[in-house]
C-alpha cells in the first residue's frame, strides 16, 4: 500500500524559535555541554557563580555604600545592591554568551543541520543555572533582615526573570546572527553590557533619575532591564524595610500596572525583530563560518 507523501520542506528552513520547543532534548544536551565545558579543569567549578557576584558586590558596596555614603540614604543598601546585581549579571552573561554562541559552535553548525536558535537559547538557560544559587544567597540574606514577601511579590520575581530572559533571547538572536557576518558585533555588545549596570537602578535609587530626566523619565522606564530590577527591589528589598524606612523611598508609581506590561511589549518586539533577522541571515551561516 502506497504511503502518503508529505509536503517537501526546503532544507535549512524552520519555524524559528518554535522549533526550540520541538527539540527540547537537544536543548538540554546543549545546556549540559555548555556547563561542563565552562568548568572543565576549574578548581572552584560552579562556585564561580558565587565568587564573581560577591566580588562585584563588595567593590560596589565599598566604593558607593561606604566611600560615597549611599547606604546612609538607602536603608538596607546591601540587599538593594545585591538584588540588582544578580539580575543584571544574568542579563549580561546571557547576552554576551548568546552573541558568541553561533561562532563558538561553528564546527557543529557546519556538519549537521539543527535549529540554529538552539544555541542562543541554550546560553540563556545556562545563565539561569548560574542565577539560581545567587538568588538562594539573596533570599538567605533577606531572611536575616526580616524578609516577609507577599505571594504577589514572589510571582513578580518569576515575571521579572522571564522578562529579562525574553529580552536576552531577542538581543542574543539579533547580535548572534550579526556576529557571524560582522565580528565587531561583539565589541558593540561589550559596550552595551558595560552601560547596563549604570542604566538601571542597581547602584542608585530611581528618584535620582526622575529628578534629572523630569518629563522624559518614561524613556528610562521603558528599558525592560530597569523594570525587572525595580521588581526585584520591590520583591526582595521592600519587604525588609520597617514602616518608617519604607516611607523614605517608595517604588515607582504604576510599576506593575503600566511599566511591567510595557516592558514585556518592548521585549516581545525585540524578540520578533531578532527572530526575523536571525532567520534571514541563518540560511548562509554554514558558508560564512
From TrEMBL:
Record's subcellular location: Cell inner membrane; Cell membrane
PROSITE patterns registered for this protein in UniProt: ABC_TM2 (PS51012)
Presence of keyword Manganese: no
InterPro entries reported in the protein's UniProt record: ABC2_TM (IPR013525), ABC2_TM_bact-type (IPR047817), ABC_2_transport (IPR000412)
Keywords carried by this UniProt record: Antibiotic resistance, Cell inner membrane, Cell membrane, Membrane, Transmembrane, Transmembrane helix, Transport
One MF annotation (Gene Ontology) recorded for this entry: ABC-type transporter activity
Any one biological process term the GO annotation gives: response to antibiotic
Membrane topology label: Multi-pass membrane protein
Domain ABC transmembrane type-2: 44-281
Pfam families assigned to the protein according to its UniProt record, in alphabetical order: ABC2_membrane
Highest taxon in the source lineage: Bacteria
Entry GO CC: ATP-binding cassette (ABC) transporter complex
Transmembrane segments: 47-68, 75-92, 124-147, 154-182, 188-206, 218-236, 256-278
Family assignment from sequence similarity: Belongs to the ABC-2 integral membrane protein family.
Protein name: Transport permease protein
